[in-house]
Design a protein that fits this description.
Number of helices: 5
Largest sheet: none
Shape: flat
Radius of gyration: 29 Å
Number of domains: 2
Oligomer: single chain
Distance between the termini: 98 Å
Low-confidence stretches: 160-170, 174-184
Structural class: mainly alpha
CATH architecture of the largest domain: Up-down Bundle
Strand content: under 5%
Helix content: 55-70%
Order of helices and strands: HHHHH
CATH class of the largest domain: Mainly Alpha
CATH topology of the largest domain: Four Helix Bundle (Hemerythrin (Met), subunit A)
């Protein structure tokens, strides 16, 4: 009888330990959540809820009307460029898909490469026209500043790490996850 009582007591204690571990885990998670909320409240300075302004909006100090027009132009440009990037990506995938084939002539490869290059040139023309539209919506004072800023903006899009190799300003266009090109030769002049 004593052994039965001892085994029963052991089982009850074992069950209680399961619940103790569960309560300890819940307590730890609760403390971590409270700590995260405190950290967000004290160290975020309230900026996490505010939308970031785009680089040109901030740099050129657009008014509300200009901001609305610029954002519309930017959305349209992004949509066009997304389509172009998808086309170029598909063309490059098709180009490199034939790596295993040994009977492809250099003339065929050059013709395919020229089509890809032509599509990329079309994207450059679209970007040029986009910046012309943005410049046209600016005041004369903004246009002067735009002329100074746009070259740095274009350079920063292609340079790893953003302007002057440092961190990217808020709202600066992303590099689409492209790797740095430090070891690459400069592109050929057109």
């Amino acid at each position: 009888m004593a052994w039965g009582h001892l085994i029963l007591t052991y089982r009850i204690m074992k069950e209680n330990n399961k619940y103790k571990i569960l309560w300890v885990a819940i307590g730890v998670l609760l403390l971590l959540n409270i700590g995260l909320l405190v950290w967000i409240a004290f160290f975020s300075n309230g900026n996490f809820a505010q939308p970031k302004r785009l680089f040109l909006e901030t740099e050129l100090k657009f008014d509300e009307r200009q901001t609305e027009v610029y954002r519309k132009l930017r959305r349209e440009h992004a949509q066009q460029m997304r389509g172009m990037r998808d086309e170029v990506k598909a063309m490059k995938e098709a180009y490199f898909k034939d790596l295993a084939q040994t009977n492809i002539s250099d003339d065929t490869l050059r013709a395919r490469a020229k089509r890809i290059e032509s599509k990329m040139a079309d994207a450059d023309v679209i970007t040029f026209r986009h910046f012309q539209q943005v410049r046209q919506m600016c005041t004369p004072a903004q246009q002067k500043h735009f002329d100074e800023v746009v070259i740095d903006l274009i350079r920063s899009i292609e340079r790893p790490g953003g302007p002057r190799g440092g961190p990217r300003p808020e709202g600066m266009p992303p590099r689409d996850g492209r790797p740095p090109m430090d070891d690459m030769p400069p592109p050929p002049e057109r």
